[in-house]
Amino acid sequence: MPPQDESSYYGVGGPAEGWDPARAQALNQLAQGIEVKVVSEVRSMEMARERRVGKGRVEEIESEFQQEIKLLATQVITDYQLVDQWREEGKYWILLKLEKQKVRDKLQKELDDARKLALDHYRAGVAEEREQRIGGALKSHLRGMAAIRKFLGLPVEAVFQGRNILLNNEIERSVRDLLGGVEIAAQSPIRRKVRVGQPLSAPLVVQASYQDNPLGNMPLQFEFIKGMGELEKKVRTDVRGQAACRVFKVTTEEPANVVEAHLDLEELVGQEENQVEGVRQTLARIGGGQARFFISTQEKRVMIRIEEENLGTVVSDSYLENFLKKQIAGQMKGIFSETVQDADLLLEGSASSRLFTKKGEINWCYATVTVRLQDLKTGEELYSTKLDRVKGYHLEKEEAGRRAIEKAAGLVYKELSTHLKREINP
């Protein structure tokens, strides 16, 4: 048991397997004691505040600022003394001591330093706003917000331009006003389709603006908030306020993935991760510009159904159907379905040929081809066409008819492929 001494904190480490693990345990116990001290200080300050402005929210403060409390507790552990160390039955023990007054002095210095840093950032942010440098103003105010988090949500008074202000209130108001004018809007289609493991064919593009004016050189972050994949996470806007993110691949079978673009807090705040997280919690209440893109990895299956006749004879092995399947499989890596129930797209049509004329030994035939592409999920007709009087010739009549159908098939696919790509490989 540590000594009963109201003027000091004590930390006992052990039983441990060595001196270093024992010391770590003792320091951890010291930190826990100081965390309790910090919370008690918050309670006493909050009670004083309640007498002035009404009931406080100590429990909410404790929860929201848990990481900051731990950070402060760790930072103020300096000048501790080794009281004793010993071995007992092969185990190691250490007793450390830290004077409470030193903790109070260190804690007060940490808070004073935080106040000064936050005020410096606020002063810089106001100057940036005056010059309409919105990016710099937002960066300064966010860094002030991160610094002032050490006050654990309590009112911080400061003198600015000859008047008393509540610094945290002023910084949050400035951030709220700035973010209220920032818009991040999608400039490229927000709904995409892609195969698992494949890149998007075009980047995700957003426009950042402030009160309808382009916001250049702003750090943005793109991230999957649903699903998983590999992409360019950190991108800066150009002079037009635009930023483009390449998605290298989607790595999950999740059919619906969401990528969000928002301000890059790590870059703007420039603080340790726990401070960034604290600012993020505050900004969650304020709100901020963001754009979202929805990426589907659900592969569309195509059913092809073609009726074909050559010079009045039904063709069992349709040239047009085989040609379309070959092109779709080769150029688009399409997947086919044998039944309407399992298909997403239906490509149906017909092909026929007829004898037109014979000049000398040459037979001339006309082909007629119709195709129709339908979305089976919605019933929407995506594309339809009819080609007539497409010529083909050969010494043999049947071959002339087949060549006419072959030529018509190539002409149809040239238009049809654009619509198929949009559905299969967007």
Describe the secondary structure blueprint for this structure.
Layout: E1 8-16, H1 19-53, H2 58-64, H3 66-75, E2 81-88, E3 91-99, H4 100-130, H5 134-148, E4 157-160, E5 163-166, H6 167-181, E6 182-186, E7 191-193, E8 204-210, E9 213-214, E10 219-226, E11 229-231, E12 234-236, E13 242-245, E14 247-250, E15 256-263, H7 265-269, H8 273-286, E16 290-296, E17 301-310, E18 313-314, H9 319-332, E19 335-336, E20 345-359, E21 362-375, E22 381-394, H10 397-424
Describe the structure.
By secondary structure, this protein is an alpha+beta fold. Helix content is 41%, strand content 34%. It contains 10 helices and 22 strands. The chain has helices at 19-53, 58-64, 66-75, 100-130, 134-148, 167-181, 265-269, 273-286, 319-332, 397-424; strands spanning 8-16, 81-88, 91-99, 157-160, 163-166, 182-186, 191-193, 204-210, 213-214, 219-226, 229-231, 234-236, 242-245, 247-250, 256-263, 290-296, 301-310, 313-314, 335-336, 345-359, 362-375, 381-394. Strands 17, 18, 19, 20, 21 and 22 form a 6-stranded mixed beta sheet that branches. Strands 7-16-15-10-12 form a 5-stranded mixed beta sheet. A hairpin with a 2-residue loop joins strand 8 and strand 9. It is elongated, with a radius of gyration of 35 Å.
